[in-house]
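DATA SHEET
Item: assembly model
Revision: 1
Owner: S.N.
Input lines:
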Amino acid sequence: AQSVTQPDIHITVSEGASLELRCNYSYGATPYLFWYVQSPGQGLQLLLKYFSGDTLVQGIKGFEAEFKRSQSSFNLRKPSVHWSDAAEYFCAVGSYSGGGADGLTFGKGTHLIIQP
Amino acid sequence: NAGVTQTPKFQVLKTGQSMTLQCAQDMNHNSMYWYRQDPGMGLRLIYYSASEGTTDKGEVPNGYNVSRLNKREFSLRLESAAPSQTSVYFCASSRNLMVGTNSPLHFGNGTRLTVT
């Protein structure tokens, strides 16, 4: 079965600093990968997705993520964070062969805190 | 531009009471889902509906029932609420079940349920 690990439960970053949130997955075949963001009291919003092709994907709000097959990782990055980026971030992995969203597995989330 | 709408936003139940969580989407999506979110657990799929007229169990279906009322609406029912069902419940939809085919999930803002 596939699994997703987000090693950092909390991360604190100063406003204007760069950010990297880690995501490692375990899956035997080619995965498809997502990053979602959840602001307080809100639902999850899709930041970006990887299906195939270019391993560096661009998303909304200035985020990007890089798929590294050799490291089974899909880390999320942003060059300069803003106070409005404070939120919970979820990585999710699914499989082409396993069907659709019923085979989507979410990580436990990383809580991002922005210091002034 | 409503997207996915959930009602109610908050609910407190006593053990043994029943209630129905409502969800509606206006994006003409075929597939709909119910997730629960618990601290440190990420999101777990309760039930999903690949298309109008079908429903299937997800990872944690026990204690819940669902109804796909029509293409727009997908409700979640707790027949006899238990404290273990205290959680935040999210409804989501996607164009079709195969999220790998550029059909990402769109989430509602959640229902916070407390069972005492």
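QC remark: The longest strand of chain B covers residues 31-38.
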